[in-house]
Amino acid sequence: MASVFGKPRAGGGQQSAPLEVNLAILGRRGAGKSALTVKFLTRRFISEYDPNLEDTYSSEETVDHQPVHLRVMDTADLDTPRNCERYLNWAHAFLVVYSVDSRQSFEGSSSYLELLALHAKETQRSFPALLLGNKLDMAQYRQVTQAEGAALAGRFGCLFFEVSACLDFEHVQHVFHEAVREARRELEKNSLARPLFISEERAVHHQAPLTARHGLASCTFNTLSTTSLKEMPAVAQAKLVTVKSSRAQSKRKAPTLTLLKGFKIF
Ligand SMILES: Nc1nc2c(ncn2[C@@H]2O[C@H](COP(=O)(O)OP(=O)(O)OP(=O)(O)O)[C@@H](O)[C@H]2O)c(=O)[nH]1
């Protein structure tokens, strides 16, 4: 069966079902994951938040004239990847964030890229990842050069961008849309035309031996018996609440976004 996306619409009259893309934002504490997520969803920069809050948001996007139902998981690991299966088994693509003014966060992003590489090896699938050097507005306090970011991305074969959650929305939006494009490419490659979430599907648990060898925090990988299907994270980990976006202020269209509780938006 042909892929449901990436094809021109037949007949012009029929609307294709929106492509469903799950995106997980990974990175060390303070790298700016929440700020980037909220910037993308609301065009606003937040400066206060609850660092322990992990939530999944959804947004109806249009990428390359195609409707996309995008879910964004703003993860809240502590200092290292933990209980990674909640996003490894869920996301179609990953944004790995570090802060250009923090060498520590850059090293943290390298751990996340390694984790993704190991997961890809374990599952024999590839997972698009984009490396983001955030807080570009703080470039005068740089601890990580652009060349270092590009080199790390090159090592893992992923796209690289420097961004700022404080600066222009369009650049942040571009990066998220690039992640959607990457996910779409991968999904098309795998000819995934089946529904993405089948709750009856049983996960076969096995311990990933690679994590210990690579000094990563303990992670258990779930390999689905049908490897092309992914499970939604447990309800406790993914709270979807629809609210109106500030973008809806344009009266023409009111895209729905999901919850921003826990964030103070100015
Ligand atoms: N100057 C500047 N500050 C930023 C930027 N992005 C985030 N911050 C600030 O950096 C701090 C951490 O940002 P968060 O978005 O909460 O970082 P996080 O990665 O989600 O951190 P955890 O929630 O602890 O995992 C906050 O004080 C933000 O206001 C940015 O692009 N520029």
What is the CATH architecture assignment of the domain at 19-191?
A: 3-Layer(aba) Sandwich
Radius of gyration, whole Å: 18 Å
In whole angstroms, the N-to-C terminal distance is 47 Å
**β-sheet strand percentage:** 15-25%
Rounded mean pLDDT is 74
Unreliable stretches: 1-13, 198-266
Description:
The chain is of the alpha/beta class. The chain has a domain at about 20-190: P-loop containing nucleotide triphosphate hydrolases (Rossmann fold), CATH 3.40.50.300. Helices cover about 25% and strands about 25% of the residues. The strands form three sheets. Strands 2-3-1-4-5-6 form a six-stranded mixed beta sheet, with helices on both faces. The chain has a two-stranded antiparallel sheet with strand order 7-8. A two-stranded antiparallel sheet has the order 9-10. β5, α4 (about 145-155) and β6 form a beta-alpha-beta unit. Bound molecules: guanosine-5'-triphosphate (GTP). Guanosine-5'-triphosphate (GTP) binds near residues 76 and 134. It catalyses: GTP + H2O = GDP + phosphate + H(+). It holds the Pfam family Ras. InterPro entries: P-loop_NTPase, Ras-related_GTPase, Small_GTP-bd, Small_GTPase.
Short key terms for the protein model shown above:
hydrolase, about 25% strand, binds guanosine-5'-triphosphate, GDP binding, single chain, disordered N terminus, about 270 residues, Rossmann fold, 6 helices, two-stranded antiparallel sheet, six-stranded mixed beta sheet, disordered C terminus, alpha/beta
